Amino acid sequence: MDKNKFILFVCIFLFLVLGLGVLSTEEVNDDIGIIKDFGNLFMNLPEGNIIGSEEGVKYNKLKEGGRFTFTSKDASLSIQGSSFEGVLPKDNNGRSSFIEVNLLGDITRADFAVGENGGEYLIGGVKFNLPPNSRVYYDNENGFRFPEGTKITNLNDFYNLNMELNFEGNNLNFIDEVIVNGKLKLTKYGYLIGEGEATYEGMKIKNLFGVNDVAILKNNLDKLKEEDISELNWIRKDSKGLEFSSSSTGSIFVEFLEGNDILNVGKNGKLELRIDNGDKLKISKFSGVPRFNYVPSENGVTNIVNDGLVLELDKGGKHHVDISPVTLKDLSLDKYAAVPVIIESDVLDEEIRINSRGSLYGVLVDKIDGKKVEKIVYDLENPIMSLKTEELNGLMSSLKENIKEEGSLDSAFRASQFFLLGTKNNYFTTSESIDLVKKIVQSSGEYSDHVLHKVKSGLDKLSNDNVKISYEKFSHFTLKNLHNFDFKYGDDLDKFDVIYSVLNNGLKENKDFNLIEDFSLKVIKSDFNSRDSVLFLTNGIKEYNGANFESIKFGAEVVGRYSLVPGVTDFLDLRYSNIKDKQTFGKEYALALNRYFNDKDSIQKSDSQMASYALDQMHLVESDNDHSDIIRNSIISNLDANSKYYLIANSEGNNNLFTSTFEKIYSSVDKKDVSGLMKSVDPNGDYWLKFTTELSARGKLSELYKQDSLFYRKLIQDSLDNYDENILFENAVLMTETFQEIYNHPEAYPGEKEAFEEFLISKYKSSETINEQGIYSYLLRLNSNPNTQKAENILKDLPELHEPILPSSFSQRDEIAAKLYFYKDENWFSIAANDFNSNYKMNLEWNNGKQARLSKIVNGKKIIIDLELNDPSVDFVPSIEEDIKGQTYIYTAHRGHSFNTEKTYPDFLSSDTTKIIHLAGCGSYGRLAEYQQKFPNSFFIADKDEGQGFPSDKVTYLVLEGIAEGKLNWEDLTPDFAKEKGLVFPEQESLPQYLQRYKSGM
Questions:
Q1: Which of 303, 307, 295 is nearest to 319 (CA)?
Q2: Which of 14, 43, 248, 577 is deepest in the core (most CB within 10 A)?
Q3: What whole-number distance in Å separates Cα of residue 237 and Cα of residue 282?
Q4: DSSP H helical ranges for 77-225
Q5: % of the chain with per-residue pLDDT over 90
């Protein structure tokens, strides 16, 4: 059939102004050949803008333009100079091919298939070649979805449009510059790699989950502004080299490919980078060796994997260096050669050099007498890189002979590399090390990877403690235990951790090697009542005499029954053979603490806290399992004065020593002369200040002050003589109660009020910041009736302390609501719901076991108490942020164990909203300063004591009831039982509230 061409004329302006009337009265025929009807629709577009074959293209009118549907494979269509030939009317799935244009004649949507010859087309300023028998999709809002193998051949027209466009597909070739598998966006500055990966300039850039888009900057760089890219991950290449910059929350993953012209990556080379959270890396070439210049950020981390090595850098310098094991796949491809590089940074004292053999050196470079001097300060090499061919083949042969599952084989090969490194650090020869690997694999089979890691960990223990052992002894010890291990119970592999700790501890104690082996074999062969019990035997070798294993084992099983965290108290010299039951366990734990704290040089704050933590955890386990408190009581009754002092001094509030535990310890201290105890136990005063602030945090300092006022006054002054404003703030809050006691009862503390007035005035006048001034001003203002003229004079110029009064909007609400957060490790959710319902006559609107609502009408207002039950394993309560920042609740309360408080009010959460925040956990008063800083406009109720449930219920109800009755002053809202129950209510505005007024008025 002959093909006649015809011309279609289009004009958007006439259509908008005049054409509406024409369209409303004249029907447009679907036949593209009727020029007259198109003339009515498109009148002023230049001649030749849309040209189509008379047959084979069907036209349909659309609201904002038209659609051209291909009905013949011989059809042709030209739109704005872009020709569309070779388009199939339908693909193999029967989907039609079409192109849509707007009233300007621009293509807005295209979805068409091509035949065996493919085709070249131009849409949206992008010229591209489609592969044979493929289909493309385009719309001007979402961009292109290309078939695999499409090649973009020209982008000049696109860049002239000054727009952005999205692309999606596999193996997309952008003008031989970038190959994309996934998503990419074109911008005026270059390419933005979305989900997937892209190859560019010899680099594979990975964004596998689509959350770390990476910009390749290459166009209009002279117009590039810092703010345009500050929140981007980006890569830039120029004549000087490569530059990588991650955003503050982003990451860049790059693998360098063979032929990269800057890194000189050979066919066997493998080099990968991961740059995170604001870090930058610049790569340049100098004398043939690439130089990496690392620029750290505050929170960033950069990882460099150079085949057999992995290096982690952060703002502190070299954070971690280790081997990166070669995989079987890399081995089969012969792809395990390192890329020579030099790494330098302002945060590194040394240069880090890596050679082609995979050896890493830390080199200090200096000049002495004008000469360059280099000193190697550390080195590392993946042992697999230096093995001879016959050694590597022998290792692989043994692995393949004994391990059949492919995944296990690869894991064991990687584990063997770590193992060989461990043997090298212990000075075994290469042949000895490979021989031992083979024998371990022969004994362990499919478990070889796990066993190799366990044995390597044992080697590390020895080298870290500088414990020497010959290859013969270590090999004999390892293989003898392996031959006696029953691999039917593979979950007992933790026993290998124990036996190497036994070996290490035994050698350090100069134990007879036969005793060490005998003890280890008994561990391997024995059954235990729990997996944890065996882990407590690491120090059992110290008391082993060849005949008392069963008594040591029994003691370890008692400990394992009640201790949740093996290893945290390894610094204690527990004598397991003395432990027969809970009573003797508690006594032995106390005696071990006494021995530890009697050696003043060995005391570590972290050890003290772990001892306290373990004590509390044992109490929880015994309480839950046996409903008794024998272990804790036995411990405390056997503690000496040293142990009591240091446990309190290092406890850091309820975080490390439960309030109930503190009270038991404190009640056992002789109160007649506590300052004398402090001086005798700690004559150098290393922990006096910490002990004093802990007493204050737990509400005990006031009652001791009179015993030795000069001593305690000096310590309080020391606590407030601190240039760290956070510590100063915390101590000021903790000491508020003591100051109020001294100010309000000067007759009981002769001379103390005047001494503190003098001290605080001096600190106020010498303050270097307005925050410091404000804190000292607050402590001065607590004194409503000064004793000295100097204090009277200065108080005249300081802002007065306001009474603690709630906003009037609280009582004006129709609904006055509270939210209480409970946890599943206690039963208080259901108990509290019943308490509010039964004892306070609140209506239970609903209770689904996880959430409940109770309500009651008071003074025409509806008071609401919502209860929520949370899983204690969560990082934070999911609803808390909305509850704190929203307007639904005026009152929130943590109603769980004190150690769960940070889940109710997590570290990341802060707010300027005004709430009543009830910290109902044990000893929450000690953390009051921390939460006041996070929620400066809120009013706090805290607990010095054990956080009892029923008083907490009563507080919540009475406060809400009082607000409904119009009470807003905390003097009217504080219940009579508050002091008796150790509850702390606002007595004046808080320090953060005062500081805000102080700073705004200065």
A1: 303
A2: 577
A3: 10
A4: 156-161
A5: 60
Please enumerate in sequence order all residues whose Cβ is within 8 A of that of 297, keeping only pairs 6 or more positions apart, or say none: 246, 248, 277, 278, 279, 280, 315
Where are the extended beta strands (E) located within 848-964? 851-858, 861-870, 891-894, 916-919, 939-943
pLDDT at 286: 61
The secondary structure of 234-302, three-state, reads: EEEEECCEEEEECCCCCEEEEEECCCCCCCCCCCCECEEEEEECCCEEEEEEECCEEEEEEECCCCCEE
Core vs surface per residue 904-935: b (16+ CB within 10 A) or e: bbbeebeeeebbbbbbbbbbbbbbbbbbbbbb
3-state secondary structure 22-64: HHHHCCCCCECCCHHHHHHHCCCCCCCCEEEECCCEEEEEECC
Beta bridge partners of 815: 862
What pLDDT, in 10s, does the model give residues 725-737? 888 998 999 899 8
Place of tokens 């697999």: 384
Q: Give CA–CA dist 151/132, Å, rounded.
A: 12
Matching residue, tokens 């300063």: 929
Domain ranges across the chain: 1-114, 527-639, 720-795, 808-986
Tokens of 718: 């020391």
897 pLDDT more than 90 = no
Q: What is the mean pLDDT of the chain?
A: 88
DSSP state of 850: S
Token pair recorded at residue 660: 């109930």
Q: Is the separation of the CB atoms in 345 and 295 below 8 Å?
A: yes
496: buried, middle or exposed (CB in 10 Å: 19+, 13-18, 0-12)?
Answer: buried
Integer Cα distance of 959 and 657 in angstroms: 30
Helices 641-649 and 582-598, packing angle to 10 deg: 80
Output phi, psi for 584, to 5 deg. -75, -30
Between the CA of residue 9 and those of 17, 31, 80, what are the distances in Å? 16, 15, 12
Instruction: Return the beta strands (E) in 481-637 as ranges.
Output: none
The pair of structure tokens assigned to 722 is 């601190």
Q: Which two tokens stand for residue 826?
A: 């206690």
How many C-beta neighbours within 10 Å does residue 464 have? 10
Instruction: End-to-end CA distance of the chain: give it in Å, rounded.
Output: 93
Asked if 342 and 291 count as a contact pair (C-beta separation under 8 A), the reply is: yes
Across the range 25-47, mean pLDDT stands at 39
How many angstroms separate the CA atoms of 72 and 599, rounded? 95
Q: What average pLDDT does this structure show over 912-932?
A: 90
Inter-residue contact 413 to 452 (CB < 8 Å): no
CB within 8 Å of 900: residues ≥ 6 apart: 823, 825, 872, 894, 921
SS3 content of the chain, % helix, strand, coil (to 5): 45, 25, 35
Residue labelled with tokens 């070996």: 503
Closest CA to 385 of 362, 355, 426: 355
Tell me which of 401-415, 523-537, 587-601 is least confident: 523-537
In the predicted structure, residue 525 carries a pLDDT above the cut 80: yes
Here the tokens at position 135 are: 């289909």
Give the helix/strand (H/E) hosting 110: strand 107-114
Q: What is the chain's length?
A: 1002
Q: Give, in words, the CATH class of 808-986.
A: alpha beta
The residues near 651 (Cβ < 8 Å, ≥ 6 apart) are 608, 609, 612, 657, 662, 694
Nearest-angstrom CA–CA distance, 87 and 236 = 39
- Spatial separation of the C-alpha atoms in residues 630 and 138, rounded to whole Å: 75
Residues 6+ apart with CB under 8 A from 417: 308, 323, 325, 326, 382, 383, 384
Burial of residue 336, with CB atoms counted within 10 A of its CB: 0-12 exposed, 13-18 middle, 19 or more buried = buried
Task: Decide if 188 contacts 219 (C-beta within 8 A).
Answer: yes
Q: What is the pLDDT of residue 567?
A: 66
